[in-house]
Amino acid sequence: MSDILKTIAERTRRRVATAKLAVPVAMLEAHLETLSPCRDFPAALRGKGTRVIAELKAASPSKGVIRTDFPVAELARELELAGAAALSVLTEPEFFRGRLENLELARREVRIPLLRKDFVVDEYQLLEARVAGADAVLLIAALLTPEELHRLTDRAHRLGLAVLGEAHDEAELGMLLDSGVDMIGVNARDLRTFRTDLATTARLLQRIPPERLPVAESAIRDRADVRGMEAAGAAALLVGETLMRAPHPGMALKGLLG
């Protein structure tokens, strides 16, 4: 695990410990029976044409602030109208300037499924995600042992959440293929160096069976990148920075969709 990933994981654990004191597990669980069923995230990636998971992301450790003007509700509506199959909502506050409340805002505005994008290390975060309106969660293989991955995936499924597992190399991909995650994403960004390489993404995508819904993540900038990833077997593409840097993210998304 890279130093930055260790730092994010450590601070996430501290934040979760504080959150548990403020809002105990029992309080979150009390909300579960009042919630509507989750929207079918995997089904949203099985449609015809290019399927994009559009990401609401204000900043990142590698790029700093990406978008200063960040009206979550407006952006969510714009991206849905432009043809996003689903939305990914960053909720990590320190390095990505996300908030759990952004999920709640997006949930009220759109009908497409929502992914909580965060560094999930504790079952408590799955409860938070479900109560805040997520339909799916991200589990990063680099953060977890195989046992933790299985446990968190099982708990997510019992809550009705779909799981997108994320890999950056062959070992992590093998771990995800052996797990019960619903979708498998390959991140082009090496979390040790923050360099991106779509050739690595393409190579790993080709090892994922189509029924596991391969997702290409990061470094997708134009229609040529989209075609390349789809040719490698991607069922969907997760795109954040390219959209968030655009003056009009919806127009940028339409360009990617062709």
Structural account:
- The protein has 258 residues and is α/β, with parallel strands linked by helices.
- The protein has a single domain (3-33, 41-257), classed as Alpha-Beta Barrel (TIM Barrel), CATH 3.20.20.70.
- It has helices at 3-22, 25-29, 41-44, 72-82, 93-96, 100-109, 123-132, 146-158, 170-177, 198-205, 223-231, 241-244, 249-257; strands spanning 52-56, 59-60, 64-65, 86-90, 114-117, 136-140, 162-167, 183-187, 214-217, 236-239.
- The protein has an eight-stranded parallel barrel with strand order 1-4-5-6-7-8-9-10, surrounded by seven helices.
- The radius of gyration is 17 Å and the shape is globular.
